[in-house]
Design goal:
The chain is built from twelve helices and no strands. By secondary structure, the protein is mainly α. The longest helix has 29 residues, at 208-236. The N and C termini lie far apart (37 Å).
Length: 252
């Protein structure tokens, strides 16, 4: 089972105080703070490094609807299931030709990657595969409160997109609006999903232990995303140790 910290709450927080505590987790731990993302937004990544990011991030994107299907299957509440299944459509699309996964593949092709290489996922870093596996484990083998609260990284998704998209368009001449088409729908989808998940978290976490569990779930999700970027930095920035079998940029 994916490790969860054991945050001890000394009192029961009000719903607003719990929301503030959750948002503070993101203020200090969200992955837009990672050095790899700072290099990306500054225009300091090479094409090969951008390719490595797109390829490895696909493994995470590919896993999201599987994760959401697991959460969906665990609920006995039809109202919850009706709302949560919107996430599956957002990523899988209605007909296989639309949706977030397809748009991410177009991003990967836009930075020069072969689609089959990306969808095969075997060239991703071992740490990437372990991280997405940990996310599946997190939502499968913990409470529904943990499964829902772990999705609250979406509260900060529009902030990261708002930084990333204009920076990439300005600083990388091979990046176009079409390349970044994945991100535009997320500016409305992520806030919608985050609001629903936040309301549920505040409704379900009614004891100090449950509130600590919700906070720990979000910390763990941030750790998973941070670990993926740590692996990218180690392999493709410094010291540059690419594991056997992982993607090697042509420039290397």
């Amino acid at each position: 089972m994916t490790f969860l910290r054991q945050t001890k709450m000394d009192r029961l927080l009000s719903p607003d105080e719990l929301e503030e505590a959750l948002r503070n987790v993101l203020v200090t731990r969200y992955h837009n703070l990672h050095p790899f993302h700072k290099l990306m937004n500054a225009g300091d990544l090479t094409l090969g490094q951008m390719q490595a990011w797109a390829l490895n991030r696909y493994c995470y994107q590919y896993t999201i609807p599987k994760k959401d299907a697991i959460v969906l299957s665990r609920s006995e509440d039809p109202e919850f299931r009706r709302e949560w299944r919107k996430r599956l459509v957002d990523h899988d699309g209605e007909d296989g030709d639309t949706g977030g996964i397809e748009r991410w593949l177009r991003l990967a092709e836009g930075v020069g990657l072969d689609r089959d290489l990306v969808t095969g996922r075997s060239a991703a870093l071992p740490a990437t595969r372990f991280a997405v596996g940990a996310y599946i484990d997190l939502v499968s083998n913990n409470s529904m409160l943990v499964a829902v609260a772990s999705s609250l990284t979406e509260l900060f998704s529009p902030i990261a997109i708002g930084e990333r998209v204009p920076a990439m368009l300005k600083r990388y001449d091979y990046i176009t609006d079409e390349t970044l088409a994945y991100f535009k729908p997320r500016m409305t989808q992520a806030p919608r999903d985050a609001e629903f998940a936040l309301d549920l978290t505040k409704k379900w976490a009614i004891t100090p232990d449950q509130q600590g569990e919700a906070i720990d779930a979000l910390i763990t999700k941030c750790d998973i995303l941070w670990a993926m970027l740590d692996a990218l930095f180690h392999a493709y920035v410094a010291p540059g140790h690419v594991p056997p079998g992982a993607f090697v940029p042509e420039e290397a």
